[in-house]
Design brief:
By secondary structure, this protein is α/β, with parallel strands linked by helices. The protein is built from five helices and 16 strands. Strands 1, 2, 3, 4, 5, 6 and 16 form a seven-stranded mixed β-sheet that branches. The chain has a four-stranded parallel β-sheet with strand order 10-9-8-14, with helices on one face. A three-stranded antiparallel β-sheet has the order 11-12-13, with no helix packed on it. Bound molecules: flavin-adenine dinucleotide (FAD).
């Protein structure tokens, strides 16, 4: 039995854990990955917008978070597989069979990249599917297809065009949703072709990606285009499936919360990106973690004199 169970150890979960510890709450953090940090582990650019810190990249900032929390008393279990959660009963059952119980639960499960769900997308992971723009040197000299029409897709197309002979940006809409400066650069870059109103139906190959099948609006039939790399940037989705049917969520699966980070179930809180479609940032995630810990502490009557 713990005071607080925190599910997820990205910035929101780690901040909640730090604050729970400071407020004297007995806390256990459950993280499914081998490493803590969440999305920070896929941020390869410098982070200059988190107040008080200049981090070379997400991993650098994650390391600072870990350094700061290493003397805390909360327990952290990584590589944990949660089988089921009963939020009303505050009970979590792990795949290993272990049963955990708490007075309060903080959901800090963040987001993951949305997938297309087309044939070949999973099959070619590690064989042409590109996870990160940091891998672009491995694709130097190869033809690449970027799927998506927002900032991330446009930015990735521009980055890959630095090393690839051709980059084809395929997107569903009539117009790109990316910021104007990216769109201007896309249209003046001779390596980049943009296919609007187009869909990729499947990714084809044997040992490695060899082509994508594309359907363009007003074209008579789909055609195959030879590429050796594919990058999908069609947005993110909240990791909230585990709590579906139990909590109020919006239609995209974001958990609905009050300004106190409270969900629709008493003593269940949601913090960070999983509950924040409007401002999915490190600052908001960290702030949400602190708020949830403070509210729980005041409800449990612990260290109520610790006011800032
Ligand atoms: C490429 C990129 C660049 C970015 N750049 C910036 C930037 O410059 N500035 C900025 O403020 N923000 C930036 N962000 C966004 C920022 O990283 C997120 O807002 C922040 O990480 C959200 O923290 P979080 O803890 O809510 O979620 P996450 O970071 O997504 O962490 C959630 C954690 O929960 C774990 N988890 C999920 N499901 C389960 C489960 N069932 N059981 C146990 N654990 C689970 C995950 O493994 C993960 O560790 C960027 C994001 C990306 C992808």
């Amino acid at each position: 039995m713990h005071d607080v169970l925190i599910i997820g150890a990205g910035p929101a979960g780690l901040s909640a854990a730090l604050w729970c510890d400071e407020l004297g709450l007995d806390t256990l953090v459950l993280e499914q990955s081998e490493e803590v940090g969440g999305q920070l582990l896929s941020v390869h650019n410098p982070i200059d917008n988190y107040l008080g810190v200049h981090a070379d990249n997400g991993r650098d900032l994650r390391d600072r978070f870990v350094e700061q929390t290493k003397d805390c008393d909360f327990d952290l279990w990584t590589q944990v597989e949660i089988d089921s959660v009963d939020l009303k009963a505050k009970r979590v059952v792990l795949r290993s069979g272990e049963k955990l119980k708490a007075i309060a639960i903080i959901i800090a499960t963040g987001l993951r990249r949305r997938k297309l769900g087309i044939p070949g997308e999973d099959e070619f992971i590690g064989r042409g599917m590109i996870e990160s723009s940091a891998d672009r040197q491995a694709f130097a000299g190869k033809d690449v297809c970027v799927i998506g029409g927002g900032d991330a897709a446009a930015e990735n197309a521009l980055q890959f065009a630095e090393v690839c002979p051709t980059v084809t940006l395929v997107h569903r809409g009539k117009k790109l949703r990316a910021r104007r400066e990216f769109i201007e650069q896309l249209h003046t870059n001779h390596c980049i072709t943009v296919f609007p109103e187009s869909l990729v139906h499947r990714i084809i190959g044997r040992d490695w990606i060899e082509a994508v099948e594309i359907e363009r609006a007003r074209a008579i039939k789909p055609f195959q285009m030879a590429v050796q790399g594919v990058i999908v940037r069609i947005g993110f989705q909240p990791n909230s499936e585990l709590f579906r049917e139990q909590l109020e969520m919006d239609k995209r699966g974001y958990v609905i919360i009050s300004s106190r980070q409270e969900t629709s179930i008493e003593n269940v809180f949601a913090v960070g990106d999983v509950a924040n479609p409007l401002s999915p940032t490190i600052s908001s995630a960290v702030g949400g973690g602190a708020t949830a810990a403070k509210i729980i502490s005041s409800r449990l009557g612990r260290l109520s004199t610790l006011m800032y």
